[in-house]
Design brief:
Blueprint (H helix, E strand, L loop, with lengths): L6 E4 L10 E4 L10 H7 L5 E4 L16 H14 L5 E6 L1 H13 L3 E7 L8 H17 L2 H11 L6 H13 L2 H12 L5 H5 L5 E6 L7 H10 L3 E6 L6 H4 L1 H18 L1
Parallel strand pairs: 2-3, 2-4, 4-5, 5-6, 6-7
Antiparallel strand pairs: 1-3
Length: 263
């Protein structure tokens, strides 16, 4: 049976002693947000980047998509690809899905990377906002929303090519898929206690100018995780992997090297 999710799978012929790197994108994006990391790391290890359900080339499932469903999809994809253990990285909603994955099948995770994300459950105000936004996207599509938030997703001073890529990802996203994720995310559990039980090395990364998940959120996760490193990327907002790929890749590369040395 073919995998449910569309995905990028590069570097399968690279050093098999190094754990594969699995990259989970944020909302409302797709796997192309990881292109700088796919290019940088696939010469040395296997790198897998799926399109989440409702995004990119993966099937759209309307309604509500809880984080646990995204996590199950990723588990089933990795089973299909026969990837038993791996380093798991997620950004924004992808970071929350990475936490859900660790909760579901953490025994397979060799290292955890949480970028521009936060672990707390949604507030009542936040639930109302996410559900109202879901209704709006179903009515209007994503272009108006994308225009409004582009310079919060990436910093106003980001390169034009980066802005164009991010805007293109947002406007290409299915309204039904985005709305289903928003409704599911509104009901997410609180992962703060889970972070204190993470037994593997972790890397926390955040853009210095991120308004959605500020540096203080990253510092709190770093404090909660028993074995973690914190990297603040200057000159970036919510998508430092695209805005400042060299700096992001340096932090991720050092983290991966440490895991490789420890095996």
């Amino acid at each position: 049976m073919p995998p449910f999710l569309a995905y990028e799978d590069r570097g399968a012929d690279a050093d098999s002693s190094r754990p594969p790197l699995v990259l989970i994108h944020g909302h409302p994006f797709d796997r192309t947000m990881w292109e700088p990391q796919l290019a940088a790391f696939s010469p040395h290890r296997r790198v897998i980047a799926p399109d989440l359900r409702g995004y990119g080339a993966s099937p759209v499932v309307p309604g509500t998509t809880p984080l646990g469903v995204f996590a199950r999809d990723i588990e089933e994809l990795l089973d299909e690809l026969k990837v038993d253990s791996f380093v798991l990285a997620g950004l924004s909603m992808g970071g929350q899905i990475a936490m859900a994955c660790y909760d579901r099948f953490g025994e397979r995770v060799r290292g955890l990377v949480l970028a521009d994300t936060f672990p707390a459950a949604e507030t009542e105000e936040g639930k109302a906002w996410r559900n109202a936004l879901a209704d709006r996207l179903l009515r209007e599509g994503l272009r108006g929303y994308a225009d409004e938030v582009l310079e919060k997703m990436v910093a106003p001073y980001a390169h034009d090519a980066v802005k164009a890529h991010v805007h293109r990802m947002m406007t290409s996203t299915s309204p039904e898929g985005a709305a289903a994720a928003l409704r599911g995310r509104a009901e997410r559990p609180d992962y703060r206690a889970l972070l204190t039980r993470v037994t593997v090395p972790a890397l926390v990364v955040v853009g210095a100018d991120d308004e959605y998940t500020p540096v203080s959120d990253a510092e709190a996760m770093h404090a909660a995780l028993p074995h973690s490193t914190l990297t603040v990327v200057d000159g970036a907002a919510h998508l430092p992997n695209l805005e400042r790929p060299e700096e992001f890749n340096a932090a991720l590369g050092a983290f991966l090297a440490g895991l490789d040395d420890a095996r």
